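Retro notes (design track)

What went well: tokenization of the new backbones is finally stable.
What didn't: we kept losing track of which sequence belonged to which structure.
Fix going forward: every design gets posted as structure first, then sequence, in one message. First example under the new rule, 127 residues:
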């Protein structure tokens, strides 16, 4: 084994090439792409219609990149599980700011509120 390489690299690296080509790209791109979406904002709303509007606003606000990552994990079942809260992830703090501004402009403030914002909260791939 060459000097300077960790032992696990020699075990995992060859196994990667045993995967079909279609899986290789998914594994590499999913891990790296989701990690870039680490500017999050958690919203609380008791209203499912508002939830769907917020999902649409996040799609609008994420100008470049994979828009679906921004609203990933914000389905009705996720919202119910997390007690009327959902977290949106953006690849740029400006996109998160656009989301907040547009939500304030379009939706009544009494129907939703910001719980927290985080600059180091990467999105997780959804099943």
């Amino acid at each position: 084994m060459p000097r300077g390489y960790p032992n696990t690299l020699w075990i995992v690296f060859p196994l990667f090439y045993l995967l079909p080509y279609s899986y290789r790209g998914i594994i590499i791109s999913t891990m790296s792409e989701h990690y870039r979406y680490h500017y999050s904002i958690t919203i609380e709303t008791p209203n499912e219609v508002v939830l769907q509007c917020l999902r649409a606003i996040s799609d609008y606000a994420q100008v470049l990149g994979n828009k679906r990552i921004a609203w990933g994990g914000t389905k009705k079942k996720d919202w119910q599980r997390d007690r009327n809260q959902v977290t949106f992830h953006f690849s740029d703090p400006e996109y998160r700011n656009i989301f907040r501004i547009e939500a304030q402009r379009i939706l009544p403030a009494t129907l939703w509120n910001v719980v927290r914002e985080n600059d180091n909260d990467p999105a997780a791939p959804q099943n």
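Added context from the reviewer: Residues 4-13, 26-30 have pLDDT under 50 and may be disordered.
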